[in-house]
Amino acid sequence: MTDIRDETHDPTHAADDSAFEELAALLSGRDFWSTRAGGGIRSIVMVDGPHGVRRQAGTADNLGFHQSMPSTCFPPGAGIASSWDPALMREVGEALGREARALDVDMLLGPAINIKRSPLGGRTFEYFSEDPRLTGALAVEYVRGVQSTGVGTSLKHFAVNSQESDRMRVSAEVDSRTLREIYLPAFERVVKEAAPTSVMSAYNAINGVFSSENHWLLTELLREEWGFDGLVVSDWGAIKDRVEALAAGLDLEMPGTGDSGTEAILQAVRDGRLEPALVEASVERLQRLAERTAPAPDALTPDASAGFDPVAHHALARRAAAASVVLLRNEQHTLPLRPGQTVAVIGELAVAPQYQGGGSSHVNPTQVDLPLDELRAALGGERVSYAAGYSKGADAATADALLSEARAAAASVDVAVVMVGLYEEDQSEGFDREHLDLPDAHVALIEAVAGVAPRTVVVLSNGGVVTLEPWHDRVDAIVEGWALGQAVGGALADVLTGAVNPSGRLAETIPLALADTPAYLNFPGEQELVRHGEGVFVGYRYYTSVDRAVRYPFGHGLSYTSFSIDDFEVDGSGTDAAVARVTVRNAGDVAGAEVVQLYIAPAPSAVRRPVRELGAFAKVSLEPGETTTISLELERRSFAHWDARGSRWWVDPGSYRVELGRSASDIIASREVTLAGDVERPAALNLDSTVKEWFGHSVVGPVLIQTMMANATAGQQAAAEANANALKMVESMPMGQFARFPGVEIPAEALEQLILLSGASERTESVA
Ligand code: BGC
Questions:
Q1: What percent of the chain stands above pLDDT 90?
Q2: pLDDT at 744
Q3: What pLDDT does 17 receive?
């Protein structure tokens, strides 16, 4: 390509220059999955994403209707996030990159990292968590893993795409503090730490401006503040106005829409509405992307292009899935299943498993492990019986017969394993769920089996949270399998039999009822608006702050061993960060992994903060009796809140509690740490500053009190002293109004002098 920076274009003629036209045309895709070649820039191929490579050889679509080439279906976001294991995420990322390369894909459209605001969200199976720190930590490693193979990533959907309802029109109404603390930090972290090759703008609007046309979002924040140097691509069909989008910072329109986008760009340049330099800058970013993601020369040798190793990748998918399973309940050590026990596996999902959701992320797996086969292989076929228990679309008579058969199977064994969950059509891109219920037939099956089986284990396969009511207390064990990918069967068998000790922890809260969820009254909004009324109180931040009981809290997960904390220390570092050291011991008799979770309880603050927020975490594997000491950094940001007035991160000075939790609701130890934090020099006062601010001002306050007392009559002084509430009642009044009140009457000149006195000090800014 010619160096476009060296070319000078006369703005009025650039659009008629054929070289320029060729460049402008590059900014709209060639077709569904590839860009145009031209100006020396090669065409690149980008496909979904996130948990497998959806490379379509035939008819293309972005909603998963048409078939794609086989690739490994790794655990989707809801599964892998429960592993709380960034190192594992990285391994999966590397494997995804290898598969992408083998399938001639230059960029994978993922990770998808929107925050799970409501469990009803249609794409919660694809997203990681309700917590931005956990989301960010995993997404960083996803990007590093994929990009280590030379393949690009596209961080999506930027931003606040936490629902599917009306996703192409809705405006998410979110205050700036909530944006900064909840919906943006995972994006920020990935951009700053992993340099993704691209960011995909979301369909929805934020506070009235569509993400794809949002200059603040795509340019001021993403590029200027966070330093993003990659390409911004639209979500498929997200652009409403191509020129606005380009001017806002959106480089590439996908999929291709023929020549209409290019013509709009050229016309705007001709009209002087669009700087040619903007077009050139976007083309440069596309050029850089094509260069960054070009296959290394040795990847073109026959060996490297021979494909990927589906067997090795399936084994990784199984390991990742097993590490993602969350053991929610295990009364009387029902699990693991013991050798010699007879087991009835009940539920059609044992032979037709659910392991991913619907829509653009739908992967055509290289193979699928069936839970029934895998349990038989692990326990011995003769010990494992099977009953379907329910069947999709069964009439009443068939349903009854299936239940009777299930009861008989359950009553004749030591343990019944009931497999229930959601179908793919219940959890998909494009729409949100309307309730948290399992299918009625599945609930009926649980009740029927629990009534007769000596022991009942419920195994769930559900991309989104389901309620465990009203049957929870009637079963002995509950295994939350989320969406585990194509190795679902092997992974579940590994955990049920104890070949793998469960180590997953909930990345999202399981509430008791839908009405308990923080966004209940505001989800999914109406009339094209969704108000984020709960603010920063998303997920556990809400439940813990209002002390609302939940079925299982964020961070919860059991193990077949137990862990003890032998030592826990926290030291402040600098003025606004800390380091924690935690000594963990495996106190049981099998190997296992513990997730050390540190939460921060805030110092007193001018803003209302959640009672605790995840500050750091680490997953440690320990042999029986083994002890390890780990060090966790509690960075400045884990103590900070977004100060909306000053548009800055702010660490309040004071005493914070660093809490060690088995979950967000089960704090087992805590330590205090006092931070100097950010110190505000007294702000300059003005007539709009309140009476409280005037009296509380370190320099002006004492002078003011002296003056007022000196001018007051004895009666006024006595009245003020007698009424303890005197100042409290007027403290929120702006001084300009208060000063004119009869009896107060502070002369304007006196106020002016005091303002000057206060003006000597300015706010100190601190950059997070
Ligand atoms: C989805 C994106 C996806 C794109 C391409 C859209 O419908 O929102 O996540 O990457 O299609 O398939």
A1: 86
A2: 85
A3: 87
Residue keyed to tokens 């995993």? 138
Q: Which helix (H) or strand (E) holds 440?
A: helix 440-452
DSSP designation for 45: B
Furthest C-alpha separation in the chain: 99
Residue 522 phi, psi (nearest 5): -120, 20
Nearest CA, atom 8, ligand 1: 235
pLDDT computed for residue 61 by the predictor: 78
Dihedral through CA 754, CA 755, CA 759, CA 760, nearest 10? -10
Which residue stretches of 391-432 are H helix?
A: 396-411
pLDDT computed for residue 718 by the predictor: 80
| Token pair listed for 593 | 């992994």
Q: Which atom of ligand 1 is nearest to the CA of 49?
A: 10
Q: In terms of Cα–Cα distance, which of 110, 206, 192 is closest to 162?
A: 206
pLDDT digits (tens, 9 = 90+) for 597-645: 999 999 999 999 999 999 999 999 999 999 999 999 999 999 999 999 9
Q: Confirm or reject: Cβ of 156 under 6 Å from ligand 1.
A: yes
Running DSSP on this structure, what letter comes out for residue 164?
-
Helix (H) or strand (E) holding 650: strand 648-650
In one-letter notation, the amino acid at residue 391 is S
594 in Cβ contact with 606 (< 8 Å): no
Contacts for 332 with CB less than 8 Å, ≥ 6 apart = 476
Question: Is the CB–ligand 1 distance for residue 236 below 6 Å?
Answer: yes
**What length does the chain have?**
768
Mean pLDDT of the chain: 94
Can 652 be counted among the known catalytic residues?
no
Task: Tell which residue, 76, 84, 51, has the closest CA to residue 503.
Answer: 84
Please answer whether residues 755 and 735 qualify as being in contact, where contact means their C-beta atoms are separated by less than 8 angstroms: no
Q: What angle do CA 151, 157, 163 make, to 5 degrees?
A: 145
Contact between 558 and 595 (Cβ < 8 Å)? no
Q: What ranges in 506-644 are assigned the alpha helix state H?
A: 540-545, 636-639
Catalytic option among 48, 235, 476, 576: 235
Sheet of strand 198-201: strand arrangement: 46-47, 107-108, 152-158, 198-201, 231-234
Residue 709: the pLDDT is 78
The answer to whether 504 and 325 are in contact (CB under 8 A) is yes
Is the CB of 109 inside a 6 Å radius of any atom of ligand 1?
yes
Give residue 57's pLDDT: 85
Closest to 337 (Cα-Cα) out of 482, 484, 450, 476: 476
In the reported structure, the alpha carbon of residue 137 is separated from the centroid of ligand 1 by a whole-number distance in angstroms of 23
Q: Averaged over 497-519, what is the pLDDT? A: 98
pLDDT the model gives residue 306: 61
Place of tokens 């009339």: 527
Q: Evaluate: CB of 503 within 6 angstroms of ligand 1.
A: no
Rounded to an integer, what distance in angstroms lies between the CA atom of residue 180 and that of residue 174?
Answer: 10
Cβ atoms of residues 591 and 561 within 8 Å = yes
Structure tokens, 275: 């700087």
Bridge-partner residues for 656, per DSSP? 673
Q: Report the C-alpha gap between 217 and 207 in whole angstroms.
A: 11
pLDDT of residue 59: 80
Residue 511, phi then psi, degrees to nearest 5: -80, 170
Instruction: Tell which residue, 332, 636, 555, has the closest CA to residue 455.
Output: 332
Nearest CA to ligand 1 atom 4: 236
Among 488, 631, 643, 647, smallest CA distance to 569 is for: 631
Tens of pLDDT, residues 673-684: 999 999 877 678
* Domains, the chain: 11-59+68-294 (3.20.20.300), 309-545 (3.40.50.1700), 563-675 (2.60.40.10), 691-767 (no CATH)
Q: What percentage of the chain reaches a pLDDT higher than 70? A: 96
